[in-house]
Amino acid sequence: MLSEEDVNRFMAAAITEAREALERGEVAVGCVIVDKEQCSIVARAGNSTNQKHNSTWHCEFSAIETLFTLVPDGKVGANDRDSLHAFMSRYALFVTCEPCIMCATALHIVGLTDVYYGCHNEKFGGCGSVLSLHNGYGDFPPLHCREGIQADEAIQLLQAFYSSGNPNDELEEYRSILITRLEEVEISTKEDARCGNREQALLCLRKKALLRDQLSQIDTYLFQVLRIISDTEMAQVNLEVYKHLKIGAELLSNISKCMNLDDVESMQAVWQSCRDQMNDVTLALDQGNMIVDDNAIMQELELLCNDSSIPAVSVTKEISNVQTIPLQDATPISQPITSYSTPSLDEPHVMKPLLVADPSW
């Protein structure tokens, strides 16, 4: 019989597993399996859906897999159910969050019926929150559940995970900022050209080129993500991963193939590179440290100026910190945002690292 001190100690160990899962970018849920007679932990795990590239690999599955190594003779088949359940009866599960419907079913099947958990799982819980599988059904015995153990700590970890946000939402927000800044820069460009301020107009055109390029990359990336999500068949038990993980491991794998990248790590590196660049907000634009197609920009500047009576002045004066590249080496500038078309998936597209417009312009 486990004492109250034992219960709190084992749940604290599960909390530790959840915290480590959070640090790995996984949903912050952890568990331990305890030998009730020896009062010792025999298996421990945190969620590992990303690591395993398997959106169903919740911490309960990982811990049960470890526990299976202790089954006598390794017999875990259906014909050995009675002996398996007898073996499992000596163990108890401590998990920081109520087992989901999938995991509750797995606990029934293997006969791990003593369950201690922290907070409720109001969206996917299989032990009373959504379905009451813990009551038992068919030939399966009920689960003996005790809830609310160190629930506040479990909730705090989950809140820490969910508050980190979805990078696609972050990109959408950033995209909106870019569009707003692009509109402002377009107004400034026309005004500067109208007033004869060619140097300032040229700088604004450089900013427009960079903004358009970033918007094109983001639109292509987001389109591919949404296309893959819509084309991916997902069981209901997997929805939590796709709704809440930063980018689910399976989704990353599909995106990497779509973008002609070798592996998931490559896609993660692309995304991290984007995030690193997004932190350097003032480097490219506030300091004018841009690499753009100057020939095309000069053409656009002349078109703007042709309709106004601007005195002919040299446009070759160097603008501080602005780098130019030959036309043949330049990346083509995207069309204005108003003429964007849906990105094509006919050819793989590798998103380049983003440079970011400073919202404080």
Automatic annotation (TrEMBL):
GO terms for biological process, alphabetical: tRNA wobble adenosine to inosine editing; vacuolar transport
Upper lineage: Eukaryota, Sar, Alveolata, Apicomplexa, Aconoidasida
Name of the protein: CMP dCMP zinc-binding
CDD domains named in the record: nucleoside_deaminase
Keywords linked to the UniProt accession: Hydrolase
Organism: Babesia ovis
One Pfam assignment: Snf7
PROSITE patterns assigned: CYT_DCMP_DEAMINASES_2
Domain CMP/dCMP-type deaminase: 5-129
Sample GO molecular function, one term: tRNA-specific adenosine-34 deaminase activity
